[in-house]
Write a structure and sequence with these properties.
Radius of gyration: 22 Å
Largest sheet: 2 strands, antiparallel
Helix content: 55-70%
Number of strands: 2
CATH class of the domain at 81-140 and 194-271: Mainly Alpha
CATH architecture of the domain at 81-140 and 194-271: Orthogonal Bundle
Number of helices: 15
Shape: globular
Strand content: under 5%
Distance between the termini: 82 Å
Strand order of the largest sheet: 1-2
Structural class: mainly alpha
Length: about 270
């Protein structure tokens, strides 16, 4: 007697899923460098099955290593536990305000264009720019793909950073991210430090040259930051201090309360509010 269609479907599903546990087991997270090479190979197999080209994977992982500096940074985030006053002092809040006011004047046309399009004034953008990289002066020195891959492998937050790694690979595949790119310890990219998923979702061409470059173009970085804030509920013309409508968008930028309040204070000082 021939197989019924329903039985055939069940058997086909069993066969299709039989290999999944083995792949998942091979790509188990780890807590040290020992299992990283095997994890990379398993992940590359999974990524190929999800549409990332083999050439992209080979290119992207050619220089990827276990990033010990990233793990140290991930375990040692202490500044967010400071008081607001301590945090402002540690991050050079007054220096950011002083320089931010000058940059606002020097780049008045750029900030006017950004506010007209996204509704975000110069102050919070300059506060973020200054806080994240000293206005583009220090973008970080860690190999971006190694940092993101290490955190995807690490057992602390593997699901979150696996999504970031897939986004980074898409950016490599579409030419937005160089395989030699360097940035902050957690794989943040560019002058305002975008994680790969946010580059895909909110990255925009702010200078009109036809490509998105958050590292080399301040216009791209600042317009993308404004687009991020708008995507997190920013309303043109509304306030952004605690309790005001746009403070929630600043909360979307960074989860640390002390960071959110510092950005609000610095931004208001720069804007003259």
């Amino acid at each position: 007697m021939g197989m019924t269609k329903s039985v055939a479907k069940v058997l086909a599903a069993m066969i299709a899923t039989a290999a999944v546990p083995a792949a998942a087991e091979a790509a188990q997270c780890g807590k040290d460098a020992g299992g990283f090479p095997a994890w990379v190979e398993a992940f590359k197999g999974e990524a190929a099955s999800r549409g990332i080209s083999r050439s992209t994977l080979d290119k992207a992982f050619s220089n990827v290593d276990y990033a010990r500096a990233t793990i140290r940074a991930d375990r040692g985030q202490k500044s967010f536990k400071l008081s607001l006053e301590q945090f402002m002092q540690k991050r050079g809040g007054q220096a950011i305000i002083r320089r931010g006011k000058g940059l606002k004047k020097q780049n008045a046309a750029l900030f006017q264009r950004i506010e007209a399009r996204y509704g975000v004034p110069a102050g919070p953008l300059l506060a973020i720019w200054g806080m994240e990289t000293g206005f583009g002066g220090f973008l970080g020195k860690e190999h971006t793909l190694s940092a993101v891959a290490t955190l995807a492998y690490d057992c602390r937050r593997p699901e979150y950073f696996t999504n970031q790694l897939y986004a980074a690979l898409q950016l490599v595949q579409n030419g937005t991210l160089s395989t030699t790119a360097r940035g902050a310890a957690h794989g943040e990219i560019g002058q305002t430090q975008f994680l790969p998923v946010n580059v895909l979702k909110y990255g925009v061409d702010g200078d009109g040259n036809g490509r998105i470059d958050l590292v080399g173009s301040k216009a791209d970085a600042l317009a993308s930051t404004a687009n991020f804030l708008r995507g997190h509920g920013w309303s043109a013309g509304a306030g952004y201090q605690p309790g005001e409508p746009n403070f929630g968008a600043l909360q979307g930028w960074n989860a640390a309360s002390v960071y959110q309040r510092a950005i609000a204070i610095i931004g208001a000082e720069i804007d003259g509010n």
